[in-house]
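hey so i finally got around to running the thing on that chain from the lab meeting. sorry it took forever, my laptop kept dying and i had to restart like 3 times. anyway pasting the input first so we r on the same page abt which one it is
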Amino acid sequence: MLKLIQLEMKKHRFAGIIRAAFIANLCMFVLIAAINISSIGAEIPELATFEDILVIIDTLVRATFIIFAGVLLSKLIIDEFKSQSITVLFMYPINRKKLIIAKLLIVITFTFMAIILSVLFLTCAIFLLDQFIDAVPGTLTLEMVIKHGTSFVTGGLAASFMSLIPLYFGLRKQSTVSTLVASIIIVLLVCSNNGGFSLNEIIIVPIILACIGALVAYLAIRNIEHVDLVSKSGS
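ok and heres what got predicted. didnt touch it at all, straight out
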């Protein structure tokens, strides 16, 4: 399985994807830093404390990498079914289900690790920036880090599974656009903030969405033979 994952990452030039994730982090840092700098001397409720900054970082990072996961699903799976190149892979002496599992593990692992590392990077970067411009009142406490650290890990794990939901729509229509649109809809559902309220705060919502994502992955693996037959019959 590890060998399959390595081959898939090499085949799809994963170094470029990691580079794109790093650039996304820089963009998020610039955005948050710009908000911080512009808030100096102004009373902005959303930036009242470091705790508010951590919530913004969490929301922004999850939204970014759920959409990133949609791009990965399109690149690793949907495009190969759409172009029929997946049938060529199935001719090799490789277990088909293991191949799909390897692809899905790449998406899940990348999304989870990207969320955790991005939150860590942005939190440290904003903390260091605040030492120079003092834009955020108060200090970042250990208690705050522990509280939000647990939330980041559980939220990142839930996001990595719910990001698989677009796979259903992508495989059904064999469409990259459908996959990305579904990813954006998920972001709008769980990451939007209306008057300080977010669906993500209702703990059952991300849990249900994560379970749906896991179910979509299971069905994709179980039905891989059927999907292949449909692709062949249409060629």
